Amino acid sequence: MLFVAALGLALAACQQRGDAKNDAPPPDPAGQEAVEIGIAERRHAQPVSVNYPETGVDVGWGWDSEEGVPQPNVCIEYSIEEDKGQTKYMTMTEVSDSRELMQSMNISAAASVKTIAYQASGSAKFAKNTKINSFSSNFVLNVSVDNGVRYATPLLPGSRGEIKDPETRKTLPDAGSIRLTSEALRLAKKRDLTAFLNLCGDSYVAALYGGARLTAVITVATSSKQEKTQASTSFSGSGWGVSLKASAKGESVGSISNERITMRFHQSGGRKDKIPATKGDLLEKLDSLTTEASDYPAYYRLTLMPYTALANWPERGLPLDLSEEEQLADYWAGYATLYEDLEHILGQPEKFQVINENGQLVPLANQGGDHDRLKTVQDQVRAILLRLQQAALQCSMPEEECNFRQASYLSPYAFRIQMPLPVDITEANKQCPCADGEAKGERAENSALLVDYYIRTPVKRRCLNNPVEPGCLSNAEIDRWEERVGKQLVELPDGDTAKRLLDLIDKEGEESYEWLQVIEHPPYAWLDPAELEEEQKPLDKLIALLK
Question: pTM higher than 0.90, yes or no?
């Protein structure tokens, strides 16, 4: 990581020189006029860490961030240094879907999208094949041992020929720096950057990290919110090692029996003759990983630096927008987890209860009614997953731009608020994991319980990790989903119909339409079924409002 530190020191030095100029003494009493000194805008660059590709790569190569692949061309003048010595990292985090798992494993948005579209391999395959649902607590243990770093460093003055400005043909200053080659600089100064991006990508490989990395996904089958809280406290807190050792010995973790704790493993680097198969094996592997990283190292991580950070990069931006890939990966993960949840519920309906038309919690029947409704919901979720897969395929084609539009897809939360709730299982009632058969609770209380279980709790955990990420909803947004519980979801003909309904609500006041909520993108509405006349269709009711 020395190259990042060197960059920081250089920028700090520049800032100090700039501050010194700004702090120049005022004009003398004789009335000499002060000279205003302009300071050029500093170049900001954010290094990005990604996993080492299966195709191989070396320091100095280009990188295409949109495709998530190396460009086997060198577009910079640089030297290489290596630092020795081991650095060890260990983290334990709780995840709620496959996207969070991939992020915890350093898998980029571009790689995540390719995993959706194609058959995955390596760490991406491990993440894709790890099934996560809302009825288990899932924790990711990441352990890495770095054997130093191989990184790009600035050239020494006079060490590597002249570089000329392609327009003026003047020789550029030969200061010690990492810089574009003459050909790359020529392409970077063209009006159209396509040729530059095709040759060099948008970033260069600034550093390679070798050693060993082990990822373990620990899944705890929980049957109640109380057990979820207990699992979270045991495994994501500072005492997770004690809980892991207890489980490895066959002991219970609190009230959670050892049989309900399972693990999956993935390793990069280190000795390949023994893959951890049990919790005990994991503890042994943690003890030996440092030695394995030294004796059997492998590159597993690299750092990218944008070309815009280079000293001779032209005064222009480099277009790079990965927001569509990130949105696509997030939606896929949300819907994939939703599908897994529905499969789990339909496989053991006796363990779940639903909110009926009166807002009361009642047992989920094995067939008919709500059971058939959930099968229909699962088919709808599968259809959306197929659409998302096609979008991922299109975004993964180098010759195609990624045109994913999140506004064209209904949020997974629209289906979450239709889900049954699991029944709490107490120690005294383990032989009967079922509702007590009597209707209980009120609509507002049960709606809040539903949203708390499926939306508020996982969202708040994501907000703690990063308050500004798209998956972090505001309290008002969460409350809005709670208001939609029990309302009927209606697909509108088009965005214009949705806009006219929104204008109507705005004109006549929201208090007159508390029974109705409308969104324009995609065009959907939620209405209270109590407002429908006998045998009246929901869409007919809404269209009639506009006449």
Answer: no
